[in-house]
Write a structure and sequence with these properties.
301 residues; 39% strand; 13 strands; 3 helices; six-stranded mixed β-sheet
Length: 301
């Protein structure tokens, strides 16, 4: 039973919500200027003395604005086309052994609104609010709710109007400088995003990494030789066991013994070389860690 009668501001519009799979809807855009709370319930729309539709009303507080849909608007058709692209790197920041690369993602949606009626339409396009995305300064919505930006578009009878909504999303990636690769640097070079200061920093880091990689290669080669000698010694010892009681035992055992002694000398030398190389690698790794901690560059493009 109605318990409140008061005039409120209301405007007839057509409402279309992107990604909703719903057709355009006839709606009224109300503002509760009664100073009282409008309770939830159903409502009917009478337009020119004729029943125009009905809908559901959630609680509307004083001075709150609300869009209320009540019927389909078959005269209006809305289509959209999306365009997405990555912008070039806009900032490179090197600090405390890390590199932060900032680039923007750009998204543009063009809405095309066709009005086939003989009367003009005020169409409200609801464009979804996305976490981390911001509207460009050129995009000016009528209002923004928690879930949608609302844009008003006037469409003349029998005409088509367009609305372009462009957004940007700053995306930051993080790279540990000690993990920097030549390919990553080359990608920035291709985008023309390597200043002389950055080039010098990257060169020093990559040169030091190459020095460490060279030591690791030398260590790996010696480990391979060490493994080969160990395998060969296993073969020799098996051969010596097989010679027991044979006529050639004495001569071959002497020869195998000399070979084993020579290999043991080489194993000892290899183990020492490996230990030395590992010590050098550890020292150069510490130099790399200290180097990247001292690099501090903040370059904007």
């Amino acid at each position: 039973m109605p318990i409140l009668q008061s005039r409120i501001d209301a405007e007839k519009v057509t409402l279309w919500t992107a990604n909703s799979n719903q057709p355009p809807l006839r709606a009224i855009w109300i503002k509760n200027g009664s100073g009282l709370t409008l309770d939830s319930g159903t409502f009917n729309i009478i337009d020119g003395g004729t029943f125009a539709g009905e809908g559901l009303l959630q609680t509307v507080h004083p001075d709150e604005r609300r869009l209320l849909s009540f019927a389909a608007d078959t005269a209006v058709r809305v289509t959209s086309q999306s365009d997405f692209k990555n912008q070039p790197v806009s900032r490179i920041r090197l600090t405390r052994g890390l590199m932060f690369i900032t680039r923007e993602q750009r998204s543009k949606v063009t809405y095309s609104i066709r009005n086939a009626d003989t009367a003009a339409r005020q169409v409200v396009i609801e464009h979804p609010v996305r976490d981390g995305w911001k509207l460009t300064p050129e995009a000016k919505p009528e209002e923004t709710s928690a879930t949608h930006h609302r844009f008003r578009v006037a469409v003349d009878p029998g005409k088509t109007s367009e609305l372009a909504v462009e957004e940007f999303h700053p995306e930051e990636t993080q790279v540990v400088l000690t993990d920097l690769t030549g390919d990553q640097v080359q990608a920035l070079v291709v985008e023309n995003r390597v200043t002389p200061e950055l080039q010098d920093a990257f060169r020093r880091v990559l040169d030091q990494k190459n020095k460490i990689a060279g030591l690791q290669t030398q260590t790996g080669m010696r480990r391979q030789e060490l493994d080969a000698i160990n395998r060969d010694q296993g073969r020799i010892r098996e051969n010596m066991k097989a010679l027991k009681g044979s006529a050639e035992e004495k001569d071959l055992v002497q020869r195998y013994t000399r070979q084993l002694n020579s290999q043991e000398d080489r194993l000892s030398a290899l183990n020492k070389e490996i230990a030395d190389l590992q010590g050098q690698e550890s020292h150069e790794q510490q130099k790399l860690e200290a180097m990247v901690q001292q690099i501090a560059i903040d370059q904007k493009f």
